[in-house]
TrEMBL record:
Short name of one Pfam family: PAS_4
Protein name: PAS domain-containing protein
Annotated source species: Kutzneria kofuensis
Stretches assigned to the PAS domain: 8-74
Top-level taxon: Bacteria
Length: 394
C-alpha cells in the first residue's frame, strides 16, 4: 500500500468520522473502509480489503436498468486521470444483502470521489465518500418531489441523511426522532411532507397549538407554505399586514426567537403583539429554516398558553428545512418568484411616484404601458427602473 493511502487509512479522523469513506488505489482495489462505510454497506472488513471494487459491489442482476458500475467507473477514471474531485449526484446502486447473498438491497446514494496525491502531486488513489439517502429518497418520491431531482432536492436529501444519521447516534433522542421520521414517512404518502410536519409538531410538542412554515424571498416578501389549521394561518397572516414579526427576525438573523410570554414582548413588536394577543396567542417560538450557506424561511410555533420552548422544536426545524427544500422542486419556487416580482414592481412604482410627483396609480400605468409597448414583462421594466438604467421609460 502506498504510504499516502496507509496514512489516510490509519488516521484517527478516518476511523471516527460518521461519514462513510472507502480508500481505493489506482487499480481500483479497496485498501481500507472506515467503520461508517462498513455500517452503511453492511459489510465486514475482510470482505472488502484487497478486493476489486466492482467485484465487491457489482450491479444488481435483477435490475436491468442498473448503471452503478458504469457511472462509478467513469467517475473514478475521471478523478484518476484529471486529479480533480467528481460529484456523482444522486445514484441508485444496490448492494448485496448480507442475509441473502443471492439478493440485493435497494440503495440510493450521493457519492463524491476525490483524488489522493503524493508529495509530487501524482494521483495515487481515490477517496470514495458516500451518503446513504435511500430513506429520504423514498419519502420525497412518495411526496411527489422527485420529478426533477435537481441540485436543491439533492441538497435536501443530503441534509436529511446527515440529520437522520446524527439523530440515530444520539441515544437520548434516538427513539423520539426516529418515531418522528417514521411518522412523516407514513403521513407524507397521502400529501406533502411539510403538511405532515406541521400536524406532527402540534401533536408531538407539548403545549403547542399551531405550527406554520413561512418562506421568504428577500426582504419581507413571504410565502405562507403551510399551516396546521385555520387559527395558525390567521395568526401568521398578520405578517402580511404588520411586517416586523418574530418569524421574519428568525429568518433574518438565523437565530430562534423565543417568546414564552408574548405579552411581555410588547415593547419589541407592539403592533404584532396586540394583534396576536387578540387572536388568543400567548406564546410564540420562531425557528429559522437554514443551511450552512443560506436561509429559506421560518417554522413558527404558537401556543394559547404560557409555555416553555419545546425541547424538540429545533429538531422539527431541521427536518422542516429539508422538506421545504425538497418541496421547492414543485410549486414553491414559482410562488416565491411571483412574490419577489410583485415586490420589485411595487418598489419601482413607489420610486417613480416619488421622483415624478405622480400618483401610485399613474406610476403603475407607466410601468404597464412601457412593458406593453416593448413586449416585456412589467417586472423586467421595474427592475430596469430600480437599476437606474437610462432610457427605460422614454
Amino acid at each position: 500500500m502506498h504510504e499516502v493511502l496507509r496514512a489516510a487509512a490509519g488516521s484517527q479522523v478516518f476511523a471516527v468520522t460518521a461519514a462513510p469513506y472507502l480508500l481505493l488505489d489506482r487499480d481500483l482495489r479497496i485498501q481500507a473502509a472506515n467503520p461508517a462505510y462498513l455500517r452503511a454497506t453492511a459489510r465486514h472488513p475482510d470482505e472488502l480489503t484487497g478486493a476489486f471494487v466492482f467485484d465487491a459491489f457489482p450491479d444488481n442482476p435483477g435490475d436491468p436498468a442498473a448503471d452503478g458500475v458504469r457511472r462509478l467507473g467513469s467517475s473514478l477514471e475521471r478523478v484518476l486521470r484529471h486529479g480533480v474531485p467528481h460529484d456523482m449526484g444522486v445514484q441508485r446502486y444496490d448492494i448485496p444483502d448480507p442475509e441473502d447473498p443471492s439478493s440485493f438491497r435497494v440503495k440510493v446514494w450521493c457519492p463524491v470521489n476525490s483524488p489522493l496525491v503524493d508529495g509530487d502531486g501524482r494521483v495515487i488513489g481515490v477517496l470514495h465518500h458516500v451518503e446513504d439517502i435511500t430513506t429520504v429518497h423514498d419519502i420525497l418520491d412518495h411526496a411527489g418531489s422527485l420529478r426533477r431531482p435537481g441540485a436543491i432536492v439533492r441538497h435536501a436529501m443530503l441534509s436529511a441523511a446527515r440529520y437522520k444519521r446524527a439523530a440515530s447516534q444520539s441515544s437520548a433522542s434516538q427513539s423520539r426522532r426516529d418515531r418522528l421520521w417514521h411518522r412523516l414517512t407514513h403521513d407524507a404518502r397521502a400529501g406533502r411532507c411539510v403538511d405532515a410536519l406541521c400536524a406532527a409538531a402540534v401533536e408531538e410538542l407539548p403545549g403547542i397549538d399551531g405550527a406554520v412554515i413561512t418562506l421568504y424571498s428577500g426582504g419581507s416578501v413571504q410565502c405562507l407554505l403551510t399551516a396546521s389549521d385555520r387559527w395558525a394561518r390567521r395568526v401568521q397572516e398578520l405578517q402580511v399586514i404588520i411586517g416586523r414579526v418574530p418569524a421574519l427576525q428568525a429568518f433574518a438573523t438565523g437565530e430562534p426567537v423565543l417568546l414564552p410570554d408574548l405579552e411581555r414582548a410588547g415593547h419589541r413588536w407592539p403592533a404584532y403583539t396586540e394583534a396576536a394577543l387578540g387572536l388568543g396567542v400567548a406564546a410564540v417560538f420562531a425557528y429559522p429554516l437554514h443551511t450552512a450557506t443560506f436561509a429559506v424561511g421560518a417554522l413558527t410555533l404558537y401556543s394559547r398558553g404560557h409555555v416553555s420552548p419545546p425541547v424538540d422544536a429545533e429538531a422539527f426545524a431541521d427536518i422542516a428545512t429539508v422538506l421545504v427544500l425538497a418541496d421547492t422542486d414543485n410549486d414553491v419556487i414559482d410562488r416565491l418568484a411571483a412574490a419577489g416580482d410583485e415586490d420589485d414592481i411595487n418598489l419601482a412604482v413607489g420610486f417613480l411616484a416619488a421622483t415624478r410627483g405622480i400618483t401610485i396609480e399613474a406610476a403603475k400605468a407607466v410601468v404597464n404601458q412601457v412593458a406593453h409597448t416593448s413586449l416585456r414583462r412589467p417586472v423586467d421594466v421595474a427592475r430596469d427602473v430600480l437599476a437606474r438604467r437610462p432610457g427605460v421609460l422614454t
